[in-house]
Amino acid sequence: MATHAECPVLVIRPHEALLAPERRVAVGVDVADISEEALDQAYTEAAARGARLELLHANFHFSELPTGPGMVAPDFKALDESARCILEAAAAERRERFPEVPTDIRVERVRPSTLLTEASQRVALLVVGSHGRTGLRRLMLGSVSAETLHTASCPVLVVPPATRA
Question: Per the confidence metrics, is the pTM higher than 0.90?
Fold first, then answer.
């Protein structure tokens, strides 16, 4: 349902507690393809709960590692700083609409689903965007939101794009 729905879908597995130890909401953000809908929904949910919001970005690909003689690894510090700047700009765009929502930014060099699953252990709600990929395209490209649905320790809100391609 979360894969095909055209509206946000909240997934609460039976074993999940509805109360988190902290009043926090987290949202996964792909800085290469920001889901404005997921960000807006995360801010709305944090505001409704009187919670802090954590913008999470993680990126790691084996292709980023050098594999042969003379190969040089990318400047990971510059990549991470660029991601942080993009997240800060996204937060600044929403500051006027959501002045009551304190926002933290976290950038890590790990698999996105690993960071989201770890964050789910200490937040009341995890928000993820969905690209609306299905079938072979999803298998070829992978799906962070689908993997997170199966591994998260808290309720997960999957937010699709406003219009599907």
Answer: no
